[in-house]
Predict the 3D structure of the following.
Amino acid sequence: MTPTRSPSFLHYALALSATGLLALLVLIHHPPPKPQPIDRSPTLFSAHRARVDIAALTAFGPRPVGINGQPHPSSHQQARDYVMQRLRELGLSPELQTGQACHRSRCAQVENIVARRAASEQADQREPLVLLSHYDSVASGPGAGDAASGVATILEVIRALNVKASWQRPLVVVIDDGEEAGLLGARLLPSHRFLQRVAAVLNHEARGTGGQTAMFESSRHSLWLVEAYAQSVERPVAASAIYPLYKLLPNDTDLTVLQAAGWRGLNFAFAENAHQYHTAQDSLDFLDLGSVQHMGDQSLATARAILARDTIPSDDSDGVWFELFTRRLVLYRSSLAIGLAVLQALLWLSAVFLLVRRQPGLTLRLLLIGIVRWVLVLLLAGAVGFVVSKLILALSLTPRPWHRQPLPTWLALSTLTVCVTSLGQLLACRWSPPSSLPTLWGQSLGTLLPWTILSMLVAVKVTDASYLFTLPALFASGALLLGLWRVQSDSQTVPALVIAIAIMAATMLIWLPLIRVLFVLAGANVYFAVTIPWAILISLADPLHRLFPMRLRALMPPVLAVLGGTAIVVAVISR
């Protein structure tokens, strides 16, 4: 099938502009905000004010805790004393919580720093908000990101809260010890007299030296916390799908221990430049102060929102959330996730019923073609990832050449995945070309069946990530139902194009931020974490792809092949 209404170039430009604009909006909101100067308003957070404390802590050098009877190095003691002095300057009276803590074969005498800022009268009896980070580091580096940045963020947040806050509950500041040795300090915290009852904890961490700061974890049954975050933070970066992905990594934080003790809280961290994590390059020279600014802005806004609450729920439900261009957090309860998945399935079945009426003898064949195309796209993406990663590995003659510079390999994997799958779609069109718009919609319904199945399964099993499949499939089912009902004539090129662009846009809106998150978490170290998400996204681009003349579609694979080949060369020489 070829569109019958001209000009086809205008149609192509419309689709390219619409989808390109959406991708651009995701990209331009990817960098963290600019660090604010020292003379910024005292009610607001300044990364350059926090930088002073980061510089002081990292100047002591690595700050590991003494393990199994070994004494703490002098740098550790200097950092402890510095933090306590800074808390005194901020009007608090810090004290040390000391004790022996063990994890597996590692034991240490940890020294947690704890300070309490009282609220007035009755408010002081309420559960406190806890601000948490750790002052120790690994022995291999000064820990500017992990976690001098977290300590400095808390100190700057306290300064701003002293200027402006509604103190409806007390504040407890905890800068704990031994986190790097096995979350040792956190294991003592629940026994402290200030921490017998806790409203919430905001934990500040890092797994790199740059990038946006994400609120990547929320404790269970604490949707009110995420709502407070969503309503107060100007540039939210959060998605409930991040946590299931994060749990696949061999990393835990203090919040892991504290959740097991019944605490509720949020975890903040930045994670780009992960090759500098736990190395000598985790230093002030490599630290992106924009990441510190983003962490501080979010922490301060959330802390103010929680401190202003005179009541908090004793229990709450779980939720699903994701951000739109780091400007707004979309949030709904987990119970709605299953309802949306059921609604999507009903819409899909309604569209299939309409297809049976439009194409009574071809429905099963069209659905099967769509399913086969979905499977082939994923198989092609997996094959591309395997071949490209092996090729770069062979040409570079070094193990994991993409570890320090993941972007060129990631670009090669991404562009060549789109290239090969686009070529596969061209060949599939020649093998089974849609003869009319109803047949195109029918094949697209077949492609949507795996989405529908995954939507139901994920909604039940991994509700946090359900929006990834449910929302694009819900939008696509409604659009295809509309197409089968109202857009059937081949002369209706423009309405058909609008439907196809809408399906693609909804999918990109959900999946491009996830692809960005996967790049931050895994870089190019796991090829299928790059290629499979692209393939899933591309599977719903098929209607848009096939609404253009063959000569225009044929331009995409060679252009992408050149870009992918160039990225391979750069990946090899930049190892």
Residues 363-396 form the longest helix (34 residues). The mean pLDDT is 92. The CA atoms of residues 38 and 49 lie 5 Å apart. The beta strands are 95-103, 106-117, 129-134, 171-176, 200-206, 210-218, 265-272, 319-324, 328-333.
